[in-house]
Amino acid sequence: MEQLLEWIRAERGRLTALASSLGITPSAILQWDEVPAGRVRRVADLTDIPPSILRPDLYEGMETVQ
């Protein structure tokens, strides 16, 4: 989650854009302790952060094909 928060802080408007793309509110994202399993792939696609970074417990050791 730390990597996602760093990505959000790197550029103004990213939180709002990400939330809009996911169909949720920015505050919903900020309440996450970790990216929900059902949203990992979409968040990875939108942020270019590999799923193995977003959720190592689910994707550790798996290669991401882009």
CATH architecture: Orthogonal Bundle
Mean pLDDT, to the nearest integer, reads 94
Highest CATH level, the class = Mainly Alpha
Number of strands: 0
User: Which percent range fits the helix content?
Assistant: 55-70%
Question: Mind describing the biggest β-sheet?
Answer: none
Which shape, going by the Cα principal axes? globular
- Radius of gyration in whole Å, from Cα? 11 Å
Taken in chain order, the helices and strands follow as HHHHHH
- Count of distinct structural domains: 1
Low-confidence segments, given as residue ranges, are: none
CATH superfamily: lambda repressor-like DNA-binding domains
The helix/strand class is: mainly alpha
Could you tell me the CATH topology label.
Answer: 434 Repressor (Amino-terminal Domain)
Structure overview:
- Pfam families: YdaS_toxin (PF15943).
- GO terms for molecular function: DNA binding.
- It comes from Nitratireductor arenosus.
- InterPro entries: Lambda_DNA-bd_dom_sf, YdaS_toxin-like.
- The protein has helices at 2-9, 14-22, 26-30, 40-47, 51-54, 56-59.
- With 66 residues, it is an all-alpha fold.
- It has one domain (2-59): 434 Repressor (Amino-terminal Domain).
List the helices and strands and how they pair.
Blueprint: H1 2-9, H2 14-22, H3 26-30, H4 40-47, H5 51-54, H6 56-59
In short:
The protein has 66 residues and is mostly helical.
Key phrases:
66 residues; 434 Repressor (Amino-terminal Domain); 6 helices
